[in-house]
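User: Predict the structure for this protein chain, please.
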Amino acid sequence: MNRRKFLSTSAALPVLALIPHARVSAASSASEPFGSSRVRQLARDAAGKEFVSPDSKLPDAFKDLDYDHYRAIRFLPEHALWHGEKLPFEVQFFHRGFFYKNRVDIYEVVDGQATKIQYRPDYFSFGETKPPPPDADLGFAGFRIHAPINRPDYYDEVCVFLGASYFRAVAKGEIYGLSARGLSINTGEAKGEEFPLFKAFWIEKPAPNATSIVVHALLDSKSAAASYRFTIRPGATTVFDVEMSLYPRVDLDHAGLAPMTSMFFFGPNDRNDVDDFRPAVHDSDGLAIYNGQGEQLWRPLSNPRDLQISTFADLNPHGFGLMQREKNFFAYEDLESQFERRPSLWVEPIGDWGEGSVQLIEIPTKEEIHDNIAGFWHPKSALQSKGEHNFTYRLHWGPDAPKSHALARFSRTGIGIRGDNKLFVLDLIGDILKSVDPKKVKGAVSAEKAEIKNIVTQPNPDTGGWRLSFEMPIKDKTPVELRASLMQDDKALSEVWVYRWAP
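Assistant: Here is the predicted structure, written as structure tokens:
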């Protein structure tokens, strides 16, 4: 079992019967002053020294745990940080073991003082695993934040930080799907990817009437160190305000900012001979981009036969994200996984990010348990060593991008065969389509090094939208870059559909 599968099920771990132990407290540890610049200074200092790997030593009983035994180690909710204090947030912690062997230091910040959260074995139920001695200090692997977003009387799990620099969040009515990361380095490069780690967190104690919680994080890696300040606001859309300060040890030629990872196994555009009762299996179905030129792009995801890297050059992007647009149960027919409830993740840059590109990486997979999709912003110029690079952005976890779009949107991409031609059938929805003159609507389709035939546009009475279809003769095995949109005279009615068809 992999990290993605574990995190998708972590929120459903059963709540055990209450046991009369004291809740998590940091009061027994020595405290130290904590200010807004503290973590930035720690990251700056770390970057000036050689990288030191975190403590990953564990007793044999814990370092060799399989998935089932690790999942059986459960944090007892009554020990949660701030449990019983009638605050709007509570925090629970993950034990180390399985894939998550690195020790992560976690601090509580109260009135400008930071105090380390001390590990205690009696915070956990260990299932069939023998508990460590009462005086053991095995530490934590990560944590999760709970808040009442679905019911006022119940603290739902709203986000989790666990494993390297990965974190996830959900909005009201959703379940875990894709992940965000603090930073990616050399993702998709032949020399191999580097995985930066969150080494420490500082969690600010919220006020009784707070609608947000602040988490600070220290990231470290062989090539760079960084500080983060997350302001987390759960709700119908859960929003993270992210302030990042990056300190490279070396020039970073292949850094990925605001990275995210997801899973796409198959869909109506790409089944790759999958024999499955479900029409589709994916945590995200497309990459959306609102570029600096004001153009809105939609790139359906695929599970390619070979590694694919797509680059969308841009200047000061307005936003991008891996989206789960299909919200109909009948598109998936999966009672257990409920893919229709998986969130989309939209990145909103704050300020000018300059020249660069949104990069999409699609990795072949034969199983749905693997995260095979990555997306991030890649600066055009290398991030120079021995300097400070600041980036501010907002993450929107929810059913859609944060702002409604005036243009029609592509809701489904279907691909099949018609004779010797490849047939593309694209469905669009949007209020703008309800007032168009049907006689003036046309499809604009183009392809690199390929012929396009039989472009047809017509209303779709079952969706209230429109359908655009076209054919492409198959002449060789060369991948083809395609673009399509719906037009009325010279006016764009829709976003631009972009797609790489590969044999």
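The radius of gyration is 24 Å.
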